[in-house]
């Protein structure tokens, strides 16, 4: 889809917690899951459009997020916006 600068957009993605061996960490859920998916700022939104970088804490602004961990995986939704340059 297409959005203008300043309009909100949504992205959906799956996160997987992995151990040092690269396998899914099955017990990453409940109180063992340290990444709160309901706090949009925790997702460190960044991106690139052509040669324009959108770094975390800059023009890419996370607005809301949701998701929950189960057996080391989470289906997540993020609503964000990209602000126009000053």
Architecture blueprint of SSEs:
Elements: E1 8-16, E2 47-49, E3 52-54, E4 60-70, E5 73-82
Antiparallel strand pairs: 1-5, 2-3, 4-5
In brief, what are we looking at here?
The chain is an all-beta fold. Helices cover 0% and strands 42% of the residues. The chain has one domain.
**Unreliable parts:** none
Q: How helical, in percent, are the residues? A: under 10%
Number of helical regions: 0
Question: What is the 3D form?
Answer: elongated
How many strands appear in the DSSP assignment?
5
- Describe the biggest sheet? 3 strands, antiparallel
Radius of gyration: 15 Å
For the termini, the CA-CA separation is: 25 Å
Q: Strand content of the residues, in percent?
A: 35-45%
H/E element sequence: EEEEE
Could you report the average pLDDT, rounded to the nearest whole number?
88
Strand order of the largest sheet: 1-5-4
Number of domains: 1
What structural category arises from helix and sheet content? mainly beta
Notes on the structure:
- The chain is mainly beta and 86 residues long.
- The protein has one domain (8-82).
- The protein contains no helices and 5 strands.
- The chain has strands at 8-16, 47-49, 52-54, 60-70, 73-82.
- The strands form 2 sheets. It has a 3-stranded antiparallel β-sheet with strand order 1-5-4, with no helix packed on it. The chain has a two-stranded antiparallel sheet with strand order 2-3.
- The two termini are 25 Å apart.
């Amino acid at each position: 889809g297409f959005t203008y600068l300043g309009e909100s957009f949504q992205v959906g993605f799956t996160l997987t917690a992995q151990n040092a061996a690269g396998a899914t960490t099955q017990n990453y859920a409940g109180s063992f899951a340290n990444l709160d998916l309901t706090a949009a700022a925790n997702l460190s939104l960044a991106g690139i459009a052509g040669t324009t970088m959108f770094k975390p804490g800059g023009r890419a602004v996370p607005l809301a997020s949701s998701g929950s961990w189960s057996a080391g995986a989470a289906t997540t939704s993020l609503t964000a916006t990209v602000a126009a340059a000053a």
